[in-house]
Amino acid sequence: MLLSHQKRLKIQGIIRRILRDQEVSLEERIYVERFAQHNSTISLWLKKANSFRRNGEKSENGIDKLLQSLGIEGLDSDNHFNPNEDDISGWFGGAPDWLKRS
Predict the structure, then answer these.
(1) The pLDDT of residue 76 is above 70
(2) Top-confidence residue, 33 or 56
(3) Which H helix or E strand runs over 71?
(4) 80: closest CA among 67, 70, 69?
């Protein structure tokens, strides 16, 4: 999905406010989520912003910093896969549409 320059700037502005834990309207959040479901780059921006908002910036040399920079969940132990309690298909069930098609 190609974005116009104006849409990209609008999305980046909303994501920047999410990162800084500033006010974002429901309509803006839905707008960004709609694009994130179809665009892996926007999905990554949103994951990173949410991670920074929830956990703050991690130290330079730690594995948490690497996970955060790649937009990978895993900083919270609640997100870790537990083979004794979790079903692998259910665990991946929340993946965005662009990833499910892969």
Answers:
(1) no
(2) 33
(3) none
(4) 67
Q: Which of 26, 24, 27 shows the shortest CA–CA distance to 49?
A: 24
Distance between CA atoms of residues 87 and 30, nearest Å: 29
Please classify residue 11 by burial: count the beta carbons closer than 10 Å to its beta carbon, then call 0-12 exposed, 13-18 middle and 19+ buried. Answer: buried
Residue 10's SS3 state is helix
pTM as predicted: 0.62
C-alpha span between 32 and 46 (Å, rounded) = 8
CA angle 99, 77, 40 (to 5 degrees): 20
pLDDT at 89 over 80: no
Buried b or exposed e, range 12-36, using 16+ CB within 10 angstroms: eebbebbbeeeebeeebeebbeebb
CA nearest neighbour of 46 among 23, 30, 64: 30
Higher pLDDT, 9 or 95: 9
Whether residue 1 has pLDDT greater than 90: no
In a 3-state reduction of DSSP, which class is residue 72?
coil
Q: What is the mean pLDDT of the chain?
A: 77
